[in-house]
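Protein: BON domain-containing protein
Species: Fodinibius halophilus
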Amino acid sequence: MSVQVETPSDEDIKLDVIKQMKWDARIDASDVSITVNNGEVSISGQVPSLTAKSAATNDAYLVEGVSTVKNELNIEFPDTETVPTDKQIEDNVVTALALDGDLKSYKIDVDVNQGWVTLEGTVDAYWEKIHAKNEVLELSGVIGVTNNLGVVPTGDYMDESIAKDIINALERNVHIFADDVNVRVEDGNVTLEGTVETSKAKNAAFDSALYTPGVVSVDNKIMVV
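Structure follows.
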């Protein structure tokens, strides 16, 4: 006998996302608005930190029925907080990247404009590009990052070999049914398509591509249904 699972309504999803954010001590949700359309969550308003903005996205993805999250929150630092100048932020970014064991060998140019950081240069792997952005997002005063780092793998990688490695990684992953995911690779640029049941599975598929040697970029078009 098959059991039919009821899909949460948009209103149910919205209420659960709101409850999740009100529960999360990292977020002051008093100025946050939530809308949901066919499982697609849009978040707007303002929060006092980048940590809160990132937490809002993560919290929304934890709710059953959420397929995608569009986070348009603005960051408004409290008047009581001393915000670093752009020059101080730039110095902190340069220092952080120079001290990072995975990134210190690269020449990465940094520009900061009103707390928004732009990274230029090249790295050997796509995961290093993502790692650099995440490293910067942890720094005080940063409100966002434009990641213009190019990825130039040091080895010669065939698209077919890259795709095979990703598929093998998917098959080893306990959170994914590999047959649900279609993998396409063109010049190292990976596109993931298909449908999965949870955001956790979608993220696991992304990681399977992210850490595969030879990957230049990942476009995760997997839908959560």
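Remarks: The radius of gyration is 19 Å.
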